[in-house]
Amino acid sequence: MKEELRLWAGRLIVVACASLAALPGCMVGPNFKRPVTSMPSGWAGISPESATQPSAATTTPAELTVWWQVFNDPLLSKLVDQSLQANLTLQNAKAALRQAQAQRGVEVGGLLPTVNVPLSYQRAANGGKGLGAGPHNVYSTGVNAALNVDVFGGIRRSIEVDDANILAAMDNIRDVQVLISAEVAADYVSVRSFQQQIIVAQRNLVAQRHTADITRQKLAAGFVSSLDVANADAQVATTESTIPSLQIGERQNIYAISVLLGRPPADLVTELSIDEPLPTVPARIPVGLPSELLRRRPDIRQAEDKLHAATAQIGVATANLFPQFSLTGNLNWNAFDASKWFNPINRSWGFGPSMSWAIFQGGSVLASIEVDKALRDESFLTYQQTVLTALQDVENALIAFTKEQEHLKSLSDAVVANQKATDVSMQLYAQGQTDFLNVLNAQRSLFVSEAALVQSQQAVATDLISLYQALGGGWDQPGSTSKPAGKQAAESTN
């Protein structure tokens, strides 16, 4: 019997030593492979170049890291830079990254030895006869050590899951950077748009009040009826009524920018309430190729990271099908007399391997593996959907940016024509050669077209912002030679 026990003990030691030697390479479960995704060769929203109608967007490689600088607006650039430093949602994403990094440390600890040093004192008695029967002191201490031998890679697969989760947290930071920079820019454009619409309304209001004064003079002279005066006053009141709602929009967007910068809502009112024109938009925008989205869009990268984590999790569950090995050792001293505590006669020790194998668990391990496989498949489908959504985002932004510029051109022509019509109608009305209704219609059309022109200018700028957001701009891609504004890229992993 003793010989058999020694034989089995020797076998377990050999198994443990062999497991340690094979540790780097043996891991159960599937290895992750980056999904192969078929991408279009070009964008549907980029029309072929022609001599008479050049495309508004080209497939030339785009510089996306600090895309907001294309607007040539120093204040806009400053606000975006500040938001990428102080935004609270971004700080929250960085905290999630630190959490993922710390969780990896927890898993790594499972591969390292654990050492405990117990130390105890007891006053004890067993109630019988002989040594230790009466009240006596018991002094105990020692060293206990254990090492999990990750033969089948369950712990290493858990670390792989954590590594993928860390990458996902980093890409979440980048995704937040993309979102925040776009939101700040869009809100800034809205502020400038409202300011320009207020200027348009006030300018038209001055002209309409002047017309109303002329109408009252004509009424006093008996050339027109009181109906013309009433119509003129009504138009003045209608135009005047549009200004408060525009001021509300201006102020609310200023508040939104301030909160995006992690500041109280009213902090930027003084700085941003100064009227400035809308940021200028370049005539042609390079956007690159669809295939570049796979590495550029943080949400696609994050979906891939989560697919990686879900794949590795299958290995974690699969490892539970196999035996768990460990090496343990202990060295203890137990004495009744503190002065003889560390006497060799009071010392005991032990060392050896151990194995635990859950042979029957009612199929729960196999079921958990199937659960993880289904989660892996779900993550793959999510990845595919994320890629398709990214392509759709770019195509939507491209067609909106391209067609809105055509809309802007038509509105510019309409403003010129309406201004001419207003001038001519006023001249004819002053000479008594046209009805006052023509003056009202001309002034109303001018006001509407000028306001629409400003709104279209805002739409073009906003569509460009949406395009840059869809392309994944706003963070520094590893290996890029470009330098991001501020220190947002350097801080994204701090």
Explain what you see.
- The protein is α+β, with helices and mostly antiparallel strands.
- The protein has one domain: Outer membrane efflux proteins (OEP).
- The protein has eleven helices and seven strands.
- The protein has helices at 2-22, 74-86, 88-108, 154-221, 226-260, 269-272, 293-296, 298-318, 364-430, 436-470, 488-491; strands spanning 57-58, 114-116, 119-124, 136-149, 285-286, 324-335, 347-356.
- The strands form two sheets. Strands 2, 3, 4, 6 and 7 form a five-stranded antiparallel beta sheet that branches. Strands 1-5 form a two-stranded parallel ribbon.
- α2 (74-86) runs antiparallel to α4 (154-221).
- The protein is elongated, with a radius of gyration of 37 Å.
Q: How are the SSEs ordered, and which strands pair?
A:
Elements: H1 2-22, E1 57-58, H2 74-86, H3 88-108, E2 114-116, E3 119-124, E4 136-149, H4 154-221, H5 226-260, H6 269-272, E5 285-286, H7 293-296, H8 298-318, E6 324-335, E7 347-356, H9 364-430, H10 436-470, H11 488-491
Parallel strand pairs: 1-5
Antiparallel strand pairs: 2-4, 3-4, 4-6, 6-7
